[in-house]
């Protein structure tokens, strides 16, 4: 992705920070086998600002708002805010089943399984993890959920929703299943000798909003529109409520 393409991702920019709408299927940091055709967010950012640093991470499949610092002081400032839990993050997820969450809190410690790249709940060895969930809209077989993580553990929202028997659509690692149009559209016909594909090929999780105070105590609050695949998925579910 070119410098100009990176500019297309920018939602907000000042002298200290760049906030972007991260596309799905792009890693925050470079992977071992990264290529010019599959660059990371950080490598793209550095074509635009050579001193850029990623202030936090989003999973490769997760889309949404992400903060990049332009210089080291800005990076240190936001890192400290994250450590003090003074950054508000809001995610939207499409969860399995009809769920009526009203400030539903999940307070279950998370343990990272290093060999598998996954996590589990462990009250003995896990680290504190706290998430609040609220229902946005209920569909026929799924629910659009607002998720507010108060800590920043790996896969926190994903495993906490799974603990509520509401795994995220497409999240096969934690019990979720992909959504196919044929499951809720009557008279669905597939062309001969073709295999039906899911409406979206990823975990249906989007970082919708972030709020924090900058180095001058000015509030920065930025929302990220849904990417095309997430938007299409929601619209399809709305048709068949």
Provide an overview of this structure:
With 241 residues, this protein is α+β, with helices and mostly antiparallel strands. It has a single domain (3-239), classed as 2-Layer Sandwich (Pseudouridine synthase), CATH 3.30.2350. Helices cover 19% and strands 29% of the residues. The protein has 5 helices and 12 strands. It has helices spanning 3-7, 41-48, 72-83, 156-163, 228-239; strands at residues 10-13, 17-22, 53-54, 63-69, 88-96, 104-107, 110-113, 118-121, 130-138, 142-149, 205-213, 219-223. Strands 1, 2, 3, 4, 5, 6, 9, 10, 11 and 12 form a 10-stranded mixed sheet that branches. A two-stranded antiparallel sheet has the order 7-8. Strand 7 (110-113) and strand 8 (118-121) form a beta hairpin. The chain is globular and about 60 Å long.
Question: Briefly, what is this?
Answer:
This protein is an alpha+beta fold. It has helices at 3-7, 41-48, 72-83, 156-163, 228-239, and strands at 10-13, 17-22, 53-54, 63-69, 88-96, 104-107, 110-113, 118-121, 130-138, 142-149, 205-213, 219-223.
